[in-house]
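pls design
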């Protein structure tokens, strides 16, 4: 897990790639996250509230997803979060 985090922190992604990943997550995948969170994930990634999430990396994008998932009830939050790592591992940037 530690290796995965370091890999994601060093994996820069372009603006276009980030937008495509967000689109894929909410439209084309089985992420099991409500579509209304797409805008919130986008905003959290492109306008982060914490300086450590400012770098345009896969790690920052992952944090945008998990931050948006926090508004869900516990069971949907668990389901969405459980599938997130697998989804992000599968995307090509």
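designed seq:
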């Amino acid at each position: 897990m530690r290796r995965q985090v370091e890999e994601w922190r060093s994996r820069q992604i372009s603006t276009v790639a980030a937008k495509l990943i967000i689109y894929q997550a909410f439209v084309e995948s089985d992420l099991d996250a409500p579509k209304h969170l797409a805008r919130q994930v986008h905003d959290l990634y492109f306008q982060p509230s914490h300086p450590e999430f400012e770098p345009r990396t896969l790690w920052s994008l992952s944090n945008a997803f998990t931050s948006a998932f926090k508004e869900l009830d516990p069971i949907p939050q668990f389901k969405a979060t459980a599938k997130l790592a697998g989804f992000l591992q599968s995307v090509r940037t």
